[in-house]
Specification:
Length: about 375
């Protein structure tokens, strides 16, 4: 099998409900879709969709510029030999991890289609189907947050992530107390400040909530600030934005800075990079989630496939952004949340999606 053409598309995902984080409010997102066409007439799909230029270093424009550099180096390669594809990309440009991740996901889709196997099978096999997910409670008043937590639990959710930061620390403490008061046995609460707390605020928050059963996710801006706060926290600390690669994850585990992770596939090299982190987390008994920042059915499917391969005791769930937009590239098999869980897409081998020909319209760029 050889790659004979690469097409890059834009897809706008319109917001259906509010999503506020400490650093920004998520608006209509611009997703980048990649199609790898092969001489065997298979098509592999990849996707990356930052929520905007603030929450992470890469944005739609930078990713598309990176793809302009990377795509010509891929023509003629066998996409099933994923290690060689990654090596070719790394010898073409430094950085560009988001674009490389999207290509990696498309290669796994092709590997599945070439072998007739699902991506989750190729990654070791699923432990669960449907896969547990977690749901965000956007920044709001204590009453709004508690009400949202009640509704989500009524819908079957067992993992809730309360957003925090970007306002008075007392408001976040009040919201956390209100939500914790309605959290039911067996439901986990994560308070995610998305880097919005200072070291002092993180410590203040943890001590003010000392009696509450919750985890703190990425309270401070940098790894070093999180590490400085850690000895004074009374809650488990999870890293997200600072867990930028496998080496950092290994350091955070071995030094005791992190008790778990919120991991984004396109931050760490796609399914190949996430597989390495999954295996490290299994070896060290460390929980992690399987997320991406945003995106449609393709990236959601990738998250669900690899999320299913984590032993449930260590899984913080796979996350998909579909509840916040109402777009499906595959109306039948596109991942959707039912009862707090997401089924593995079952439309066929690879990522399990059947996307209509021409669905994404005219490509932004074509390489062949
Ligand atoms: Mg997070």
């Amino acid at each position: 099998m050889k790659i004979i053409a690469i097409y890059v598309y834009e897809k706008t995902l319109s917001m259906a409900s509010a999503y506020n984080m400490s650093s920004s409010t998520v608006g209509d997102a611009s997703s980048t879709i990649i199609e790898l066409h092969t001489d065997s007439e298979h098509i592999g799909y990849g996707e990356i969709c930052p929520t905007g230029p603030l929450p992470q270093p890469e944005h739609a424009g930078s990713i598309r510029a990176d793809l302009e550099l990377l795509a010509p180096a891929l023509i003629g390669l066998d996409p099933v030999l994923i290690g060689q594809v990654l090596a070719a990309m790394n010898s073409t440009m430094d950085g560009g991890i988001g674009a490389k991740s999207a290509i990696d996901i498309a290669c796994w889709d092709l590997l599945g289609k070439a072998t007739g196997r699902r991506v989750c099978d190729l990654l070791g096999g699923p432990f669960t189907d449907p896969v547990s997910t977690y749901h965000v409670i956007a920044i709001g008043t204590p009453d709004e947050s508690a009400s949202s937590a009640e509704h989500l639990q009524n819908d079957g959710h067992t993992k809730l992530q309360l957003k925090a930061g970007g306002r008075r620390i007392e408001d976040d403490i009040d919201a956390a107390r209100a939500v914790a008061a309605v959290i039911r046995p067996g439901v986990d609460l994560f308070v995610d400040a998305n880097r919005g707390f200072s070291v002092e605020q993180a410590i203040q928050f943890s001590h003010a909530c000392a009696g509450l059963r919750l985890n703190m996710e990425q309270p401070c801006h940098t790894y070093e600030e999180c590490a400085a706060a850690k000895p004074s926290l009374v809650h488990p600390l999870l890293l997200d934005e600072s867990a930028k690669d496998l080496a950092t994850v290994a350091k955070a585990i071995s030094s005791g800075v992190a008790n778990g992770f919120g991991m984004k596939l396109t931050r760490v090299g796609g399914l190949s990079g996430m597989r390495a982190i999954r295996d490290l987390c299994i070896a060290t008994n460390t929980p992690t989630s399987f997320d991406d920042s945003w995106g449609g059915d393709i990236i959601a499917s990738a998250c669900v496939h690899i999320g299913s391969t984590m032993p449930p005791a260590l899984s913080r769930g796979a996350w998909i952004s579909h509840p916040y937009h109402q777009c499906h590239y595959d109306e039948t098999n596109g991942p959707r949340i039912e009862g707090g869980r997401v089924a593995i897409p079952s439309g066929g081998p690879g990522l399990g999606l059947v996307i209509p020909t021409g669905y994404f319209g005219t490509p932004l760029a074509s390489h062949n």
